[in-house]
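quick one before i forget lol
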Amino acid sequence: MNVLHLSLRQLQIFSAIARTGSTTAASKEISLSQSATSAALNELERLLSIHLFERVGKRLVLNENGRALLPRALSLLNDASEIEHMSNGASLQVQSLRIGASTTIGNYVLPKILRQFLSSYLQQDDSWSSKVLIGNTEKICAAVASFELDIGLVEGPCHEPNLIVTPWIQDELVVVAQGGKKKKNEAPQKLSLETLQQQLWLLRESGSGTRESTDQLLLPYLGSYKRSMEMGSSEAIRNAVEQGLGVSYLSRWVVNEAIKSGRLRYLNTPLPLCRRQSYIVIHRNRVQTMMLQNFLKELSIERLVDE
């Protein structure tokens, strides 16, 4: 039988340094002295007979060896954490779920799913815990990749190599402007590309799935945004458009109510119809608990359509 020389504590210190970029910052995060943190890293590198970081200025940056080790270390640490949870109660490990959702899904789709999930699977359970994190696609995928979340629901492409990405439901993006009165049966005038190029475009921030989809569709036609303003949420953009600040390209999920009430109106443009694919992301090394399996059932397209 081979004797294991590596410890989970060493891997925890390694992952903290990878996340923070220095032994000083990592030591504060894990409540250890800076000298002990450095010593643990040195011992880990000695046991593995490889270097894991390169020093760039004052920061420690993962080298090729470190990048190869990090996902394996995070997987082991996650499994160890779940084993510790099991010691608190036989059913606790399978009765916790950490969900991430990009902002549009998190605000407009996930609440309905959670209501049904609660009714179907959790209403009769005595004890369970859940966490929901809302952020842009990039943030959610990074959190799933680092085992901070069990599952992510995102609107944009995922660029994390260790995640299984499964196509889910689709949405449609539409160009909208401030609402206003119009004559009965009056068809909206079709705007030219030149007119669209002169507009102030209200955009999501880089890393957002909505922004990536917007750029992919608009920039081939507009060339660039001559005038633009970035905002951190689709709700902030919708409110700004309602005030007449500019125009935007938003999800139908976001604008439906404002369109019905007349606060917003669709713009007739030469741009093609854009249907946006959303995705379910899970780490390829994630052990699927019963609670996660049940949540995946709740996400089935057939079940959503039935509702």
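fyi The chain has three domains: 8-86, 93-169+278-306, 170-276.
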